[in-house]
Amino acid sequence: EAFAVIMAGGRGTRFWPRSRQGRPKQLLPIVGRESMLRQTIDRLRPLFPVDKILLVTGSDLAPEVRAEVPEIPPENILVEPLARSTAACAGWAAIHVLKNWGDHPMALLPSDHLIGRQDFFRSLLKKALELARDRALLVTLGIQPTRPETGYGYIEMGEPLEDRSGAFMVRAFKEKPDLDTAQRYLAQKTFLWNSGMFVWRPSVILEAIEKYMPELYEQLLLIEKAYGSPHFDHLLREAFSAMPSMSIDYGVMERARNVAVIPADIHWNDLGSWEALYEISSKDDQGNVCSPEVITHEVRDSLIQVSSGQLVAAIGIEGMVVVVEKDAVLICPRERLQEVRQVVKELEKRG
Ligand code: GDD
Ligand code: MG
Questions:
Q1: How far apart are the first and last CA of the chain?
Q2: Ligand 1 center to 84 CA (angstroms)
Q3: Ordered DSSP codes for 253-282
Q4: Is the CB of 140 under 6 A from ligand 1?
Q5: What are the sequence ranges of the domains in the chain?
Q6: The complex's ipTM?
Q7: Whose CA is closest to 302, among 320, 284, 290, 317?
Q8: Is 194 near ligand 1, meaning CB less than 6 Å away?
Q9: What's the rounded mean pLDDT across residues 290-318?
Q10: N or C: which terminus of the chain carries fewer CB neighbours within 10 A?
Q11: Which helix (H) or strand (E) holds 110?
């Protein structure tokens, strides 16, 4: 018996302006016709029956999420009253699985990634679930890095485990390093990217949260006690508002010692930015990825996306991203796309 928990509460800010408030990346079709969330569920279905798939999302996104994946039982959709990042999400999901079903291995998975080799992915996920069932480990799937990406976590592989899982113990975990550090890791060959896909037993992750994030743990205990209470929603909100907001990567994975990684050559792409989309798309002979209606003259290595029918022409630009939506336009050099987040922050401040 095993469970899949999908984290679908993120805001996907780096795909602005296509992703807007209430319509983050996981609810958009970035590649293909289906939303990233739909694709995520479909790739898990051969491994998990629907009643063993859970979703965790925010109250603002919950209606859209439910509509997008109606086959998931409503009681399996956990709605966070406030966004408190992925450690809170992981903690509540662990409590929920433990309370309702027991200490069975669970996979905690993002809702907005692309995976090319699906069968192979499922076979590795199965191995990870078996490993987590048998041992008190926090297991991750690791990806061979191809560039000094600063938006990912890096995992230093240690000794191989003495079993058939293909896993290695993790010597160090570094979340979102600066560019110099990322370049050093890339050169060393013993580092993998953290895919953001984790596998563990509820008791094992909760013990790690207790140790490394005691303030979060305290609130999780209150949630556990609130199960069955007629005031559950109120108590849940109180607990969430008192929680620290920190990702599982910074909060637990960087600090824990019982971390293992399974290298996963699954043609993974987190589609974390317009740059990631540029990289996986097929390009014309000038290296451009353009919507069909875009007119270009001496444009090179650029991504120009128009989704709303406007006529767009570009002349003499290189290495640029231009995204035209009905009511917003992004113009940004490809190497500065990480800064799109700042725009979204600025917009949030303006309200
Ligand atoms: N329910 C819920 N609540 N889900 C959330 C929340 C939240 O508060 N915040 C984020 N999520 C979801 C997102 O929708 C996404 O599916 C997943 O959790 C990961 O969050 P991201 O915000 O996308 O994390 P990241 O991309 O910056 O970093 C993580 O993923 C990288 C690989 O893509 C880390 O795990 C990195 O170490 C990793 O390399
Ligand atoms: Mg991400």
A1: 45
A2: 11
A3: ITT-S-EEEEE--S-EE---SHHHHHHHS-
A4: no
A5: 3-272, 275-350
A6: 0.99
A7: 320
A8: yes
A9: 94
A10: C
A11: strand 106-110
Categorise residue 146: left if φ over 0, alpha if ψ from -120 to 50, beta otherwise.
alpha
* Number of residues that make up the chain: 351
Token pair recorded at residue 277: 């989309």
CB of 270 sitting under 6 A from ligand 1: yes
| Separation CA 206–CA 129 (nearest Å) | 17
Q: How far is the centre of ligand 1, averaged over its atoms, from the C-alpha of 154 (Å)?
A: 15
The pLDDT tens digits for 83-99 are 999 999 999 999 999 99
Question: Is the bond into 17 cis (omega within 30 degrees of 0)?
Answer: yes
- CB–CB of 93/183 below 8 Å? no
Q: Which of 79, 241, 247 to mutate to test the pocket of ligand 1 (most atoms within 8 A of CB)?
A: 247
For residues 310-314, average pLDDT: 95
Residue 26 CA, closest ligand 1 atom number: 14
CA 28–ligand 2 middle distance (angstroms):
14
Judge if the beta carbon of residue 39 lies within 6 A of ligand 1.
Answer: no
pLDDT value of residue 307: 81
